[in-house]
Structures are given as structure tokens and as C-alpha cells.
Design brief:
The protein is of the alpha+beta class. It has one domain. It contains 15 helices and 10 strands. It has helices spanning 6-12, 47-52, 58-64, 72-78, 81-85, 103-116, 158-163, 171-195, 216-222, 264-271, 273-277, 301-310, 319-323, 332-343, 348-357; strands spanning 121-126, 148-155, 200-203, 227-228, 234-235, 243-250, 289-291, 294-296, 374-376, 379-381. It has a 4-stranded antiparallel β-sheet, sandwiched between helices. A hairpin with a 2-residue loop joins strand 9 (374-376) and strand 10. The radius of gyration is 21 Å and the shape is globular. The mean pLDDT is 92. Bound molecules: iron/sulfur cluster (2 copies). One iron/sulfur cluster (SF4) binds at residues 167, 231, 278-280, 282-283, 304, 307-308, 317-320.
């Protein structure tokens, strides 16, 4: 067999991960307008930061203490992020490994590592300083000067979402499935890059023990994972908003991805399904507005955070994720719909209507595999109101 070089082998693989991200339309500027007037965010200003600081009142402060722990699966998952945090950063090997220095090749290598570790999507962008938090949850200044951000996306599981209502007892566990898995991948990837002789730090969720130094949404946008949707988060054409992400920042020389355009801005303008279905009325029906240098639909963080923390009929909430017409399994029929959104936007309203008629967004009880249970003072019991 003829021997082949690393560049030949890596360049050969047209699609690296499980989703055909390489086929999307890449553009020079993101579809969300970004000005040069973005202020760095203090992590304490975030919804959960405000809740931890008691700014949303004593009931929210009391409930956040059992946010993950009130359901046994999310509670089991909750014990892991603090362990990851110990290895988010570390010493860099004194000598650089004898590897090729071609940024294109290194990007394909790092993405392949992410997919080997079971990432669903990996994207890369430059790290703008405005995407670094100004202060962390403890009020300490944040500094992160590495050049690149590798974004690691993990699906929250389509079939579980299908069996749920979106804001029932499995919701928090779905989030932490993605947070913990992406944390594992980010910590492994960062530790590997440090062993190659380059600085690298993992950023991931751990609730009160958050290990993010960077704001994830703009990095997802710049790394070409998706477009910002009406619900205020990034939507990917294959996963919808059904994912969480971790990040690795590094100085390893990498080639960056570009933002994508698959027609979402016009689609969200007409759809509004998430705004109708949000139990907290946190998603707007109106047009985009300028906010901190971004032109976005202005999502009400306080309403959403309060609902997720104090939801008495479940654990957290992902109802906007569940009902979104982009929350779909893989398949050629949905490939056609994706093509129609991009090339025939006059059909957008019809697509939303057909989505409703076919019952997408409704709970399908045949897919429910978990028990409804609630921890009450250390004793598991059947919650007062079950979901089915
Ligand atoms: S997570 Fe729930 S409360 Fe928050 S915006 Fe989505 S549907 Fe509304
Ligand atoms: S439900 Fe509709 S409006 Fe909301 S994010 Fe999804 S596509 Fe956009």
C-alpha cells in the first residue's frame, strides 16, 4: 500500500463530523449585526449570576440551591464538574512537539480529536477580547489573551426531547448531559494541546462552579456553528438549539471557520413558535433591537432564569428548544426543508404550519424512559404533578 502524508490523509476527509457542516454557506460577516461597541460582560450580570447573588428574591435563592439536586439524574451529574475544574488549565510542556505547523492541517487534526472524543460539532474562531468576561462570579477580574477559541457542541438527545414536554423532570439532566460531556472533551483537548507545548484552557459549565472565562454565544456565531435565533441563543441547522457547548482557548496556530447563513433570520422573523410556547413569556414577538452592540431579538433573561429555577412541575426548562421547528432528527425530508428555508423563504410560514399539523413539538410519551421523581429533604418521592 502506498504511504501517504498526514496532510494528504487529513485533507481527504471531506466531512469530519456526524453533520455535514462543510456543506453550509459560509459568509464573511455574521447574519447578526455586530458593531464595534460591545462592552465586556460581568459574569455576575447573567441570569444565574443574579440568582446566586439573591437579586431575584429569597424564593429563587432558596430554589437555586436544589436546582440540579432535586432530580436524581441531574444530581448525579452535578457532582462531576468540580472535578473537571481542577484540570481546566495547567502547565505547558517546555518543548514543542514535532508536529506540522500548517494551521489548516492542525485545525482538521483538532476537529478530528473532538469528533474522536464524541463531539457533535466542532468549530474554530479567533477570540475577540469583547467575548471575554470582565469579572467572574466571585468578582475577580478575568484575563484570557489566547488567540483562538475551539467551540465543542454536544446534542441534548433528540429522542429524549421527543418524549418530554420540554420543561419536565428530565430537562436539567439533558442540559448537564451536554455540559458534562462537552466539559470532558474540552478538558481532554486542552490538556493534549498543553502536552504539545502550547497554552490551552478549557471553559465549561459547572453552575456555581462555572469555569467559563468567555461568553459562548458570540463564539458559536463566529465559529460558524449557527445563527442567533429569536430565543436569544445560537441555532444550528441540524440540531436546532438542542445543544450546549464548551470552549478551549489556545495559541496553537489554527485556521478559523467563518459564520454561516442558512436563512434563519427571515425564518425566525415569521415563525415565533418559541415566543408562543415559552411558559415564562421571556421570548419577544417583535423585531430585533440594538443591545450592547448586537442587533438581536431582546430575550428577557430574568423571566427565563426565574422560571427555570423555580419550576415546581419539573427540573429547569427547554421548552423553546423542544418546540422549535429546527429540533429534528437527521433525514432527507428535513434536508429538503433546510434547502427550502434557504432558497424559498416565501414558504417559511407554510413550513411552520406543517410542523404544527404533523405534531412536532408535542410530547410523544412512547419515548419517555425516565421516572418522575423529586428529592424532598433527601427522600425521593413522586412529584405532586406528573407530566403525563
Ligand atoms: S428555557 Fe423555558 S423559560 Fe427560558 S426562554 Fe426557553 S421556554 Fe422560555
Ligand atoms: S421556534 Fe421559530 S422563532 Fe423560535 S427560534 Fe425556532 S425558528 Fe426561531
Amino acid at each position: 500500500m502506498q504511504s501517504r502524508s498526514y496532510p494528504e490523509i487529513l485533507a481527504d476527509r471531506k466531512q469530519l463530523g456526524p453533520y455535514p457542516m462543510e456543506k453550509l454557506k459560509y459568509v464573511d460577516q455574521p447574519t447578526t449585526k455586530i458593531t464595534d461597541n460591545i462592552q465586556r460582560i460581568d459574569e455576575r450580570e447573567h441570569g444565574f449570576g443574579q440568582a446566586f447573588l439573591g437579586k431575584f428574591g429569597p424564593f429563587v435563592e432558596k430554589e437555586i440551591a436544589r436546582f440540579c439536586e432535586k432530580y436524581p439524574i441531574s444530581s448525579a451529574m452535578w457532582e462531576m464538574p468540580p472535578q473537571f475544574k481542577l484540570i481546566a488549565d495547567g502547565e505547558v510542556a517546555p518543548n514543542k512537539a514535532p508536529i506540522p505547523q500548517d494551521p489548516e492541517l492542525l485545525s482538521r487534526h483538532i476537529k478530528s480529536l473532538g469528533y474522536f472524543l464524541r463531539a457533535d460539532i466542532v468549530g474554530i474562531c479567533r477570540l475577540p477580547q469583547w467575548a471575554v468576561y470582565s469579572y467572574n462570579l466571585k468578582g475577580n477580574p478575568v484575563e484570557c489573551n489566547q488567540k483562538f477559541a475551539i467551540v465543542i457542541v454536544i446534542d441534548q438527545d433528540y429522542e429524549t426531547m421527543k418524549g418530554s414536554r420540554g420543561d419536565d423532570w428530565i430537562s436539567c439532566s439533558q442540559s448537564f448531559l451536554s455540559y458534562n460531556t462537552s466539559a470532558f472533551i474540552a478538558c481532554t483537548m486542552a490538556a493534549y494541546i498543553r502536552r504539545l507545548g502550547y497554552p490551552a484552557r478549557a471553559h465549561f459549565e459547572g453552575a456555581t462552579r462555572s469555569a467559563y472565562q468567555v461568553v459562548v454565544t458570540p463564539l458559536l456565531l463566529l465559529a460558524g456553528i449557527g445563527e442567533i435565533c429569536r430565543a436569544g441563543i445560537v441555532l444550528n441547522p441540524f440540531l436546532g438549539t438542542r445543544f450546549k457547548a464548551s470552549v478551549v482557548t489556545t495559541d496553537l496556530p489554527l485556521e478559523t471557520d467563518k459564520p454561516v447563513d442558512f436563512g434563519l433570520q427571515e425564518f425566525c422573523q415569521k415563525c415565533m413558535k418559541c415566543a408562543h410556547e415559552c411558559p415564562a413569556k421571556a421570548i419577544p414577538f417583535g423585531d430585533k433591537v440594538m443591545y450592547n452592540g448586537y442587533e438581536v431579538w431582546r430575550f428577557d433573561t430574568e423571566r427565563c432564569t426565574k422560571y427555570r429555577i423555580t419550576n415546581q412541575n419539573g427540573s429547569a426548562c427547554g421548552r423553546c428548544i423542544k418546540v422549535c421547528p429546527w429540533n429534528k432528527p437527521e433525514g432527507w425530508t428535513h434536508d429538503i426543508v433546510r434547502w427550502m428555508v434557504k432558497h424559498a423563504p416565501f414558504l417559511d410560514k407554510l413550513i411552520v404550519k406543517v410542523d404544527d399539523i404533523w405534531g412536532y413539538g408535542k410530547q410523544d410519551i412512547r419515548y419517555k424512559w425516565w421516572f418522575d421523581l423529586e428529592d424532598a429533604d433527601g427522600v425521593l418521592q413522586i412529584p405532586g404533578k406528573s407530566q403525563d
